[in-house]
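Researcher: Going back to the complex we discussed earlier. I've cleaned up the inputs and rechecked each line, so this should be the final set. Can you rerun the prediction on the complete assembly and write out the structure?
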Amino acid sequence: MSTRAEVLDLAVLGRLATAPMHGYELRKHLGATLGPVRALSYGSLYPSLRRLTDAGLIAEVRTATTPPHALSGRRARIVYELTDAGRVHLAEVLAHAEPAAWDDDAFTVRFTLFAATDARTRLRILEGRHARMVERLDLLRGSAARTRERMDSYTAELARYGLEQAEREVAWLEDLIDTERGTRGPLDLRPATDGGPPRTSTAGATGVPDIPNPKEQL
Amino acid sequence: MSTRAEVLDLAVLGRLATAPMHGYELRKHLGATLGPVRALSYGSLYPSLRRLTDAGLIAEVRTATTPPHALSGRRARIVYELTDAGRVHLAEVLAHAEPAAWDDDAFTVRFTLFAATDARTRLRILEGRHARMVERLDLLRGSAARTRERMDSYTAELARYGLEQAEREVAWLEDLIDTERGTRGPLDLRPATDGGPPRTSTAGATGVPDIPNPKEQL
DNA sequence: TCTGCCATGTAAGCCGTTACATGATTTT
DNA sequence: AAAATCATGTAACGGCTTACATGGCAGA
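Model: Rerun complete. Updated structure for the full complex:
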């Protein structure tokens, strides 16, 4: 679960769990949810489908309406669906929260699959991500303070903007965590050993609108 | 100026223009300005120094205080400085603003070198970047609107956050542009042909603090 | 008819991180 | 005395983007 390819595979598997799809469609959907900006290329998508097929986690759908390679509508589209093994594997992966789950790219993918993740795991991932971002924020603040005098205005402004962005992401995560806890963050007793921040609590009413009771497993 | 390596080379060249430095130091500085998060690895830095040396744009400094490979302090550190050709080349690159200059990574590097860039080029790069981000923002809004119904709360929340971030970057750029123009944006007459936005103007007093009169060329 | 979108793949090139190799100096 | 930091490189592996190959269908 640490390599890029594995993260992509998880995204594909998770998307196919919702509905069977063919490659082209999948690309559009993933591009939409993971950021329309970096629409992943076929050069990585199709190999991913191949890997998952070889692993027996997904399989081509063969229905009466789509005879294999026949001259039915358009070109022979290959629709993929999860196999039973795929369902089991997905459930297993979604059930535990390793540190790899809060890496930059993995976190986004895991977050888009929160609807199929149980509440405890969701919380643990959010907290892990939060800790990671706070750590990063401290680094930023430190280096900004250290080099402030030596920087020209533009470099300083860039640093300021970067800091602002990081602070906002931390605040966003805190909102999400509060919402998940349901407690709306009265006061949490984290030991200050690990660099836990004093909780600035910029959090407003910006939390997740309406969280459904998600199906516990998949 | 489009490949990643060229962008990195520019960053290195620009940094060395300010002060001669050795590789290890360079890595720290670049890591600090371009984001302490992704401290670039030696695996890309040293090859870059090699390329620039081969191209004759930088050269090792040989001073009396640092005899080559002798047992003077520490290990033989190789300090690099710009050659005359390097200075000329840097000035040329910084003088013009191609579309490649507002790509994600290139923009950051160009921005950190704004102190050595003339005002007109600065403005053109900021405007190019702004147009790019507005375009991206429209894409985001479009796909968000299209898929809103089909999304679960978490995916929707992620999309909302992404949109918010993009809006903030656009606002940031507008602030910078206004500051550069000196006019503080009374009303600019852009034709609506190109998808120019109605200028929401969230811009407050968040602009660049004090922009110095930068040395015009390097 | 031609452009553009749908649709699936493959191959190559680029490049960046990671790990390894080496060794001195400073700090704990 | 060990650990961390300074310091410079090389090699290999991973993997993503880009371009190419192919072809059907729909609308202008």
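Model: Worth noting: Residues 4-97 of chain B form a domain with the Arc Repressor Mutant, subunit A fold (CATH 1.10.10.10).
Researcher: Good, that matches what I expected from the previous run.
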